[in-house]
Sequence to fold (131 residues):
Amino acid sequence: MHKIKVETAEAREIIDVTAAVGKALREAGVMKGVCHLFVPHTTAAITINENTDPNVRRDMLQALDRIVPASGPYLHAEGNAAAHILASMIGSSAMSFVENGKLVLGAWQAIYLCEFDGPRTRTVLIKVLPG
Ligand code: ZN
Fold:
């Protein structure tokens, strides 16, 4: 298993981790198989989406903010209930196939860590299975 550490800078942020995942994949040395990605956090998530226009990420964050506003009413006393909800909405895992030692992503796809309660140090766990 490989780990990527990501230092987030904002309360809510979507960060491209594709290059770091590709580096971990090279270290794993698997040429063909499946790359599983997992975020071991309850207020962060991982997803795959558009890699070119940064406005897509801004739109996603703004839409998520409209759906799940940062301020409640919420019951969770820690004050980050919205972050927990968003983490489950987006999800804690993603995957990509691997061919020729590279991630098989669409031309317009990137892998994004989604921070919902930053800034924090986040971890992405990566397991590459040959096959
Ligand atoms: Zn909490």
Remarks:
- The two ends are 16 Å apart (CA to CA).
- The helical segments are 18-28, 54-67, 81-90.
- The longest strand covers residues 121-130.
